């Protein structure tokens, strides 16, 4: 991907990885529009020279309005990044966890599909472009404290694979960003989390490759992605299960 000349809609770009990559795309020379729910932050980003569009990926009407606004201002749009995501711990002994599970699926999986559906006709009509989905290392190597987050990201991976197959030959490519723990709201409690700066730098180097890799895998996520192949899966899941001791009524043992 030529990162110096793209027109990018970064959905979920008002914080974390999305904002880091939005700023890096702009610094490289691309035109960038950031989408999100926080209108105050969007106004601040507009002041930085980024495009800003309000969007709630859980609301089909909001997604449609955002698409229309973005394409009206940027009919040459060629790159859509589905960065919106949420997650948190769940106690599967307590049925009340379902509210968290439902919210996670609504944003991470269905939100991704809504955005893709909104922009795919435009990209197909252009005959060229890129859709960047965002899964997670947790989608390949579960973190049992966040079960639905991992399930939703595994689903995004499977959906990305199917989308790539269905768009083959159209000129529209699909790249899957697979983050490890990064120092954002979701990954802030992990002492091994990459800094946003380090992660963003490595991601942009990978995106700039020609052809664009199907999976954007920084070094820190390789242990997650290939755990089954490398025979480390069971040991790593057992290690990651130790975090369950933080739940009510659990003890390490």
The unreliable regions are none
Distance between the termini: 48 Å
Shape by Cα distribution: globular
Arithmetic mean pLDDT: 95
Q: Could you give a short account of the major beta sheet?
A: 7 strands, parallel
The helicity comes to 40-55%
Alpha-carbon Rg, integer = 18 Å
Helix and strand pattern: EHEHEHEHEHEHEHHH
Helix tally equals 9
Strand segment tally: 7
Beta-strand share of residues = 5-15%
Strand line-up of the largest beta sheet: 3-2-1-4-5-6-7
Structural class: alpha/beta
Describe this protein's structure:
- The protein is about 45% helix and about 15% strand.
- It is an alpha/beta fold and about 250 residues long.
- Strands 3-2-1-4-5-6-7 form a 7-stranded parallel β-sheet, with helices on both faces.
- α1 (about 15-30) packs across α6, α3 (about 60-75) runs parallel beside α4 (about 100-125) and α4 packs parallel to α5 (about 145-165).
- The chain is globular, with a radius of gyration of 18 Å.
- It starts with 6 loop residues before the first strand and ends in a 13-residue tail after the last helix.
- The mean pLDDT is about 95.
